[in-house]
Every structure is written in structure tokens, then in C-alpha cells.
Recover the amino acids of this structure.
């Protein structure tokens, strides 16, 4: 009997051990299952990381293969770049801050009207200082090109500029633009839709002004564009001048005369100044006469005499970049790129323009036309 009991006890112990063994095996399997999954995730992540690194390497190789003349993005930049630019002042300061942050290159900035910039360049012609010049007049940029002092450059994203904002030799880059229109004080006139020739009417006698076309590149190009389309039509402007037209000064002074109510109407007023003033609450309105006006690209140019050529090219690249074009829009200017529009002002496609502008004619005659216009008023 005792033997039987011993045998039964042995079998019971063996069964218990087997059960425990199965339980431990199942627990171990459950523990190993997440571990295997984790290992697979880690392996997949590792593969993805390797793929990402490979893609980055491929991108680097592709960028390295890009022509050096189209961008200096792969080159470490340092030092300075000297830039001459017209207003608006606030935009220029933002340009400088963004470019310096992006590249580490210090910008030495000179700001002035187109006339002041050209005068400075003339004074420095025997000892050039500027690396990049931006003007508010496309015709003045063409004059600089004809003098042979500009560097050709395949700027990054220059193919995104409006075709008419880029010359064939890639020396003038219209990275922004302005147009001129009729700006009027809404406390004096509720609404106006007169065309240019209508301002010879007695209703506007003594209440019209114009920026000095010998100081404002935009006003000068407007008059040259008008005569490009309306050859020898001096009677219109002689009649307007005889109707009490005044010339208070360059763009800022001329707009101030209308903002204060000294004059009610500004002819050929630069539009971005008007849009900014309107947003600031000034009693102004602006429109573009139906017969047309001039949309004037503001050319950025690299001088052949630049002592900081790589930095100069990088600055022009920056002016065309998404960041700089956003700053242009915020300043109420027209963006130079055709893929960017603005809701702050009228866009390029909605501005009535003189058709088939002859910039060669304008370049040849702009100075004489501006001088004659002033002579009619003085």
C-alpha cells in the first residue's frame, strides 16, 4: 500500500512540475513577443533612418552638382556686402536683418532716392564702393547696363520673375515693382475716375500736384511711358500744367501735400505709399486711369566692380527668395515673382497698363521729357 501511495505522490509531483513548466513557457513567450516586435520596429526605424540619410546624401550630391554660377548656397559666406537701395526704409531694414541672420554677412546699406543713388555712384566712379544697386526706375537700370558696368548672373529662382522683370542678359532683376496712379484726398473729393487728360478741366484748377520727375524715377518712367504710347502729345500736359499743376518735390513730399489737404489730387503718385497711408487711416484713395499707366520693375543689379562678388550674388538670390518676397508684399509693393500675389493692394494683372512699352525709347528720352515737364510748371 505504501508503495502505491509513493507512486501516486510521484505522479502528482511530476504533473505539477509539468504544469508549472507550461505556465513559465507561456509567460516567457508573452514576454518575448513584445521584445520581438520592438526589435522589428527598431529595425524598421533603422532602415527608415538609413533611407532618409541616403536621400539626404543624394540631395547633397544633387546640390553639389548644381552649377556654381546659379547659387552660392553651398559656399560658406562671410564678410560684408555694400548695397544701395531706394525707399521704403522699413523694407530695407527688414531685408538687411533677414539676410544677415540667414548668411552671417554684414550689410552696409545706403538709402536714397534713385537720383541720390545715381549721383553717389557717379561721385564714386573712380573708386567704386557698392556691390549691389537697387533702383526705383527700370530705365535707369537699363542706362547702367548700357554703360557696361553690370555683372551677368543666373540668379536662383529668377525664372519665377515676371518675364518683363528680367533682362535677356540676366543683369537686371525686378525683384519688386510699383505703379503710379491718381491719389486723392477723400475729404476733398468723394470719388474721382478722370483720365490723365481730364485734369486740364477747370474743376481741378489749382488742386493738382505731381512728384518731381527729375527726382522720382517712378514719375520719370511714367511720363516716358506715356510718350512711348502717345508720341508728341505734349498738349495734354501743357494744358494740365496750365491748370495750376504744382510739383512739391519727390514722392514723399508730393504725397504729403495731398495727405494734408494742401492739394486735393496727386498725379503719377507712387502707389505703395498710398496703400500704406490708407491702411494707417489717412483720408486717401487711389485708382489707375483707364488709358493706362506704367508698372515699373525695381531692378537689383550686381556691379562688375564688386569687391564681394559671392556676397553680392547671395544678396540678389535672397531678394528673389520666398522670405524677401513676403517682405515685399508686407511693404505694399508688387512682388517681382509671378507666382506670388497680394491682398494688400491691386495686383499686376489688374492694373491697366500702356501697351507695348518701348523701353529703348523711354531710356533715350526720359531725362529730356522730365526736364521739359518741370519747365512747364516752373
Amino acid at each position: 500500500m505504501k508503495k502505491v501511495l509513493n507512486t501516486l505522490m510521484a505522479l502528482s509531483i511530476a504533473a505539477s512540475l509539468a504544469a508549472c513548466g507550461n505556465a513559465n513557457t507561456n509567460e516567457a513567450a508573452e514576454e518575448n513577443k513584445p521584445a520581438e516586435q520592438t526589435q522589428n520596429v527598431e529595425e524598421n526605424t533603422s532602415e527608415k533612418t538609413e533611407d532618409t540619410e541616403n536621400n539626404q546624401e543624394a540631395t547633397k550630391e544633387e546640390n553639389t552638382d548644381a552649377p556654381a554660377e546659379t547659387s552660392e548656397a553651398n559656399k560658406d559666406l562671410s564678410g560684408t556686402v555694400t548695397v544701395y537701395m531706394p525707399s521704403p526704409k522699413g523694407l530695407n531694414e527688414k531685408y538687411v536683418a533677414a539676410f544677415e541672420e540667414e548668411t552671417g554677412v554684414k550689410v552696409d546699406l545706403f538709402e536714397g532716392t534713385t537720383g541720390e543713388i545715381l549721383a553717389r555712384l557717379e561721385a564714386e566712379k573712380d573708386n567704386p564702393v557698392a556691390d549691389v544697386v537697387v533702383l526705383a526706375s527700370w530705365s535707369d537700370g537699363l542706362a547702367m547696363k548700357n554703360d557696361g558696368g553690370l555683372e551677368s548672373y543666373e540668379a536662383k529662382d529668377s525664372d519665377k520673375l515676371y518675364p518683363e522683370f528680367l533682362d535677356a542678359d540676366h543683369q537686371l532683376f525686378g525683384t519688386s515693382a510699383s505703379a503710379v496712379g491718381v491719389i486723392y484726398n477723400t475729404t476733398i473729393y468723394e470719388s474721382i475716375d478722370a483720365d490723365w487728360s481730364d485734369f486740364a478741366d477747370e474743376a481741378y484748377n489749382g488742386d493738382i500736384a505731381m512728384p518731381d520727375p527729375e527726382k522720382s524715377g517712378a514719375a520719370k518712367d511714367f511720363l516716358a511711358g506715356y510718350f512711348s504710347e502717345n508720341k508728341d502729345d505734349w498738349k495734354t500736359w501743357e494744358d494740365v500744367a496750365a491748370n495750376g499743376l504744382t510739383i512739391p518735390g519727390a514722392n514723399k513730399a508730393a504725397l504729403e501735400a495731398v495727405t494734408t489737404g494742401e492739394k486735393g489730387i496727386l498725379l503719377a503718385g507712387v502707389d505703395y505709399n498710398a496703400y500704406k497711408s490708407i491702411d494707417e487711416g489717412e483720408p486717401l484713395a487711389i485708382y489707375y486711369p483707364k488709358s493706362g499707366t506704367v508698372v515699373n520693375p525695381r531692378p537689383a543689379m550686381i556691379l562688375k566692380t564688386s569687391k564681394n562678388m559671392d556676397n553680392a550674388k547671395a544678396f540678389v538670390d535672397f531678394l528673389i527668395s520666398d522670405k524677401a518676397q513676403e517682405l515685399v508684399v508686407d511693404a505694399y509693393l508688387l512682388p517681382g515673382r509671378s507666382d506670388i500675389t497680394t491682398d494688400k493692394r491691386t495686383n499686376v494683372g489688374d492694373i491697366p497698363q500702356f501697351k507695348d512699352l518701348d523701353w529703348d525709347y523711354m531710356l533715350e528720352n526720359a531725362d529730356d521729357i522730365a526736364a521739359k515737364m518741370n519747365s512747364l510748371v516752373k
Q: What stands out?
A: The longest strand covers residues 173-185.
